[in-house]
Amino acid sequence: MLLERVTDRQTLLDKLDPRVRVFIAGILSLLPIVVDRFETAGIVLGLAALVCLLERIPGRYLIQRCIAVNTFMVMMIAILPWSVRGEVIVTFGNLEYSQEGLLQALLILVKCNTVMLTFTAWISTMEAVVLGHALDKLHLPSKLIHLFLFTLRYLTVLEDEYRQLRQAMALRQFRPKLNGHTLKTFGNLVGMLLVRALDRSERIMDAMICRGYSGKFYTMRHYVVRTIDYCAIACVVLLTASILGWNFV
Questions:
Q1: What is the extent of the structural domain holding 179?
Q2: Which of 41, 200, 52 lies closest to 118, judged by CA?
Q3: pTM for this structure?
């Protein structure tokens, strides 16, 4: 389920206010974008990996996210150096695969994985509903927050609708092939899925209005920034300033 946490136990970061966790995640995700040295980027990547280790993020979950991110990164490493001038490593006709381009692509690879690990450690161990309320308390646009929460909540509903339609197709002996009939059938499947989604959204909206929905989500939890939150923010700010200072020395 998309609304479930990555882990089923309390973690170290759960002791922090959710708003503070989102704020720190934003700072630490901007840090690798600013640095321009491999040594600094490697340190930031190591810190992000260390937080994931301390949070005991399941290895299978991390591997799945790494595969999803680095599949595109491998393509970038294969393509980007051809368009950057520098010391030539490989020549193919009029095209030159440069060392500077390769180093630039590898630096982007490290930065991208750092951002992914940072959000995995600081955000993925938080319940999606808590994250939505934290974003609301940070005064982000309410419409975007509602869209985020409704998307997470009802993607599984749409998945169930899709499975029902596929089962109905299978019961009618439909077997996908590379022909016009298959394309037409899948087009009808997508159209029917959109029709059902629209019908479901109207029923959900009517039900919410009947229950007094006025465009705002309410929570029984009141967030309070404590001493441990201020200490965490101070440590992250000092660490960020130290890394940036060392990077630009």
A1: 136-210
A2: 52
A3: 0.77
